[in-house]
Amino acid sequence: MKNYTFRKAVPVWIPGLENEMNVNLLMTSKTGADARLHITGHSKYQVFVNGVLAADGPARAGHGYYRVDELDLSPLCTRDKNELAVIVAGYCTNSFYLIDEPSFVCAELYDGETLTAYTGGPGFVYESYTDRVRKTQRYSFQRPFTEAYVLPAERKPVAAAPVASKNFIERGIPFPDYDFTPFDRVVSEGAFEIKERQKYFDDRAISAVGQKLRGFPKDELEVFISKDVEKLDCKPVPCDKPADTIELGRNTFAVAALPSELTGFIQFEIETTGGTLWISFDEILINDDVNFTRFGTCSAVEYRLGAGTYKLTGFEPYSMKYARFASDAEKAVIKCAGLRRFEYTAKDLRKRPDFGDAALERVYDAAVSTFRQNTVDIYMDCPSRERAGWLCDSYFTSRTEYALTGKSRVEHNFLENFLMPDKFRVIPEGMLPMCYPSDHYDGVYIPNWSMWYVLELQEYLERSGDTQLISHAKKRVYDLLGFFRRFENKDGLLERLQSWVFIEWSKSNELTQDINYPTNMLYCRFKEAIAAMYGDDGLEKEAEALAAKIREQSFTGQWFCDNAVYDGDEAKLSGECTESCQYYAFFTGVATKELYPDLWETLVTDFGPWRKKNNKHPEIYFANAFIGNYLRLELLFRAGLYDELLDNVRGYFDYMAQKTGTLWENDGDYASCNHGFASHVAVWLREIYGKEEK
Q1: Are 120 and 10 within 8 A, CB to CB?
Q2: 70, 235, 350, 626: most buried by Cβ count inside 10 Å?
Q3: What's the topology of domain 180-341?
Q4: At the top level of CATH, which class does the domain 346-689 belong to?
Q5: Which tens digit of pLDDT belongs to each residue from 538-574?
Q6: How far is residue 133's CA from residue 147's CA, in Å, rounded to a whole number?
Q7: How far apart are CA 630 and CA 678, in angstroms?
Q8: Confidence (pTM)
Q9: Helical H runs in 498-577?
C-alpha cells in the first residue's frame, strides 16, 4: 500500500449523522480553468463540473483504509468560473458491495498549484442533499439503497465538522472513460392503469431488514419504489421507433433499448408538466416488457417532479439493455436518454485478434464488454444485483485483465484489500470473506472460495513478480490453512465443513456433505499453491498424499463420485456423480488423462454444450456455466484441443452474445446476464488467435 497525505484537508461529515443510514451531502465550490480535485470518502460520491459527471468514487478498499482519487477536471472547465458539485452518500449499512463504516468526505480543490478549498477549512459550501429521498428500500439483499427523488428540492445549509482520522492510500488503478451511450430504439409502448395487487414483491431485502441486514423497515419508507412500480398495469405493444425523443402522455410508457447490455448511470433530460416518472430496467425483455424484480432486485428509480425542465444523472450504477419510462404527468418529453458508462477504460485494451469467424467475434466482444463492466475498481461477480468482489470469480477475471491489458493493476488492489483488516467481522478466525470489501452480519461464508484466493495469489505472483504482496499475505494464508486443519479427518480429507459449501450452480451444490470430493480436490491444489509460493516441502507431500486418497476413495471405476456420507462411523460413497466433479478432478491434477484415459476420452467426446439435447450419460448431472463449463474449457485448452474448444465456445456462448452482448452467470437467462468470470473466454481466444499488442 502506498500511503497518501492531504496537504490540509481533514475528513468531515454532518455532525451527529456519520452513523445514520443513507444520509446525502452536497458540497459545492467554484474553480478556474486548471482544476484538480483530490478526494476520497465513504460510502461513495459523484463529482460534477458545470453539470457534467466527471467522476464516481472512491475505488474500494478493505476496512480501515480509503483510496484517494486525484482528478484532473480541466477538460470540463470551459468557463472562467466553473461550478464544482460533489454529491456524497453515506449509506452506513452492510452489503456485499460496500463496507459498513461511518460516513465522511475528505477533499482538496486546486487551481493549478493553488489550494482553493479543502474540507475542514474554507472554500466549500455544504448543503443537505434533500433531492434524494432518504428512507427508501434496499436495491437488493446484496446492495444498499434504491434511488427516489423529489424535485425541485429545498436544500438547507449544514455544518461539516471533522470526524475521526482515516488511513488514506493511493488509488493505484486507471479511471473509467465515462462515455455516453444513448438508447437507440423504442421497442414497445402503451398505456397503464394504476391497480392494487393482491401480492407485492417482498424479497428478503425488504422482509429481512433488521440487525443482520440494515435498512429501513417497510412502515418507515417514505417512498416504496417496488410497490409503486408494481401498481403500473402496463399493456405493451411492440414497435420500432427512434429513442432520441420519447413523448409520454398521462399514464403512458415506452420501453427503450440500448445496443447491448451496458452498465452506468442513467442520464436524460425531461420537460414535464409535473408528475411522477418511473424508470424500471433489466437485461432482457419478457413479453415486450421489463421485469424489474426478475432476479431479486428493485431495478427501478422514481422521480417526483414539479413542472419544469431537468437534466438528470442517477447516482448508482446499474446494468441494463432495456429501460421502461412510465409517467403519470399530463405531458413528459424525454430527450438524450442513455447511460453514462461506468467500466474499465478502453484506452488500456489490446487490439482484438482477427478471427475470421463471426460467432467468435461476437463472443470475444461480449467477453471484453463483460470484463469492462465488471472491472472498475475491483473484480465483481456482476455489475447489477451485487457489484461484489467474489473470490473464485476473481480467479478467472484476473486472467482476463492480464490477457487484455498486459497488467494486473486491478488484481493487485483486489488481493491487497483482503490483507488490510486485522481480522474480519463475524466469520470464524482464519477464514476469508466470500466476497470483499463487504460486511456479512449473518456470518455466512464459503470455505471453498477462500482456497481460490490462494490459487489466484500463486498465479498473480507468476504474472507480476510481486513478491512483496505474497510475503505480506503469508500469515493470512497460513491462518487459513490452520482453519482447515480443524476439519481434516484421519485420512487428511476435509469433512463436514460449515456454512455455505459451494461447488457450482448445479446438482453439485446438493452433494456437499459429509466428505465432498470436489472440495478436497481443490484443497489438494490449495496446498500445492502454498507449497510453491513459500517453499513448503511438507505441504507438497501432504498434497500428494491427499490426491492419492481422493483417487482411492472417490473413483468408482468409471466416474468420480461427488461425496461420501457417514453411516454410523463409516463414510460411504453416495453414488451420485456430477459432470462438474469430473472437471474438478482433472483441473486440480488429482486426475490426469494418463491415469484415466477412458474417462478423459468420454468427457472430451460425449460432454459439452450439446449433451442436454443428445442426453448422453443421463446418470451424470449436468454442469452449469459457473464454474463447471469453464473448467471443461480450460481442460480442453490445456490439452491443446483447440478445435473442440472453439466449437464449445460457439455452442456455450454465441446465443448469449447475440441476445445481450454479454456473457452470463448460468447457461440460461434466469439470473445475471453479465458476470465477470465469464469474460475468461477472451483469454482462450487470445491464446489461440494471437496476442496482438494494442
Answers
A1: yes
A2: 626
A3: Jelly Rolls (2.60.120)
A4: mainly alpha
A5: 999 999 999 999 999 999 999 999 999 999 999 999 9
A6: 7
A7: 8
A8: 0.97
A9: 517-534, 537-554
